Amino acid sequence: MPEIPFLEVARENLERLLSGRRVDRVEVRQVYILKSVEPPLEAALGERVAEVRRCGKYLGDDLTGDLSFVIQLMKVGRLRSFEAVKKPGRDVSLVIGFDGGTALHLTEAGPKKRASVRLERTAALESREPLARLGWGRSRRRSRWTRCGPRSRPTARL
């Protein structure tokens, strides 16, 4: 699995690249990658990216219409962004296209195919397993959602 610092840098870069962009297309090129069927992917079309966040080893792209893409890269999953329209290669599992020609390509090089993408209702993320245990609860700060809370440190026993 990618390490937390890598995912945090990816979140920051995706936030800078995607904030305010409208989803123009979602293309599933390999069926194993999609782990949800409700709401349908067509519901994300026309919505804008409001926020990109991270909780644990999940990346979340919040859209304006109470929808979120939840991406788990696992060990060999990679997200690549392209500014110009580029034909996806054979290894691309999912393409999310945005206005202005920007596209995210999700690839997975390993044979086990464990990476996943879900389209979820943003309000339901608090109760959805395994996300509920990671602390995706509401925040009182500027952000709509909290990142994971502080890790509890075990106390040493003497």
Kindly describe this structure.
The protein has a single domain, classed as MutM-like, N-terminal (N-terminal domain of MutM-like DNA repair proteins). The chain is 9% helix and 32% strand. It has one helix at residues 4-18, and strands spanning 23-28, 49-55, 58-63, 67-72, 77-82, 92-98, 103-108, 116-121. The strands form 2 sheets. Strands 1-6-7-5 form a 4-stranded antiparallel sheet, with no helix packed on it. A hairpin with a 4-residue loop joins β6 and β7 (103-108). It is globular and about 35 Å long.
In short:
This protein is mainly beta and 158 residues long. The protein has one helix and eight strands.
Low-confidence stretches: 137-158
Strand line-up in the sheet with most strands: 1-6-7-5
CATH class: Alpha Beta
End-to-end Cα distance, whole Å, is 34 Å
What are the salient characteristics of this protein?
158 residues; 8 strands; globular; four-stranded antiparallel β-sheet; 9% helix; mainly beta; N-terminal domain of MutM-like DNA repair proteins
Draw up the topology in text:
Blueprint: H1 4-18, E1 23-28, E2 49-55, E3 58-63, E4 67-72, E5 77-82, E6 92-98, E7 103-108, E8 116-121
Antiparallel strand pairs: 1-6, 2-3, 3-4, 4-8, 5-7, 6-7
